[in-house]
């Protein structure tokens, strides 16, 4: 296997739930609070694949961003760490950099760009949403 084989998949938070079979009506408020405060209380995030591209293509796409830029370093984290999280603190930075670089991109890269920018916009509209980006080696 070569390092360039594999896929990069962008997953989006689709829903959250609490590991509880049936909650009495009086406990609903506690459940909603639990959803708001996180995983350590048994909250499970359900992630749905929204964008997938070959690892080699992903690397070429990210290489269109300015060398040394924060946006490029963020996305290159997929290679370094195997996965990254994109939340509301990253949306403007990434969308701006991707938009500026679009003119240098191939048609396929521009499609990925548009799809990722749409996902970033969904985070802007609902800050509780985030993206998990994972490298899947073949």
Written description of the protein model:
- This protein is of the alpha+beta class.
- It contains five helices and four strands, in the order E-H-E-H-H-E-H-H-E.
- The chain has a four-stranded antiparallel β-sheet with strand order 2-1-4-3.
- Helix 4 (91-101) packs antiparallel against helix 5 (107-125).
- The longest helix has 19 residues, at 107-125.
- The chain is globular, with a radius of gyration of 17 Å.
Put the structure in a nutshell.
The protein has 138 residues and is an alpha+beta fold. The chain has helices spanning 28-37, 55-62, 70-81, 91-101, 107-125; strands spanning 7-18, 43-54, 83-86, 131-136.
Task: Give the helix level as a range of percent.
Answer: 40-55%
Per DSSP, what share of the residues sits in E-state strands of 2 or more residues? Answer: 15-25%
Major sheet characteristics: 4 strands, antiparallel
Helix and strand composition category: alpha+beta
What's the total helix number? Answer: 5
Q: Shape, please?
A: globular
Give the distance, in angstroms, between the N- and C-terminal Cα atoms.
7 Å
Q: Could you state the oligomeric state of the chains shown?
A: single chain
Number of strands: 4
Poorly predicted regions:
none
Mean pLDDT across all amino acids: 84
**Rg over CA atoms:** 17 Å
Secondary-structure element string: EHEHHEHHE
Major sheet: order of its strands?
Answer: 2-1-4-3
Highlighted features:
globular; 4-stranded antiparallel beta sheet; single chain; alpha+beta; 138 residues
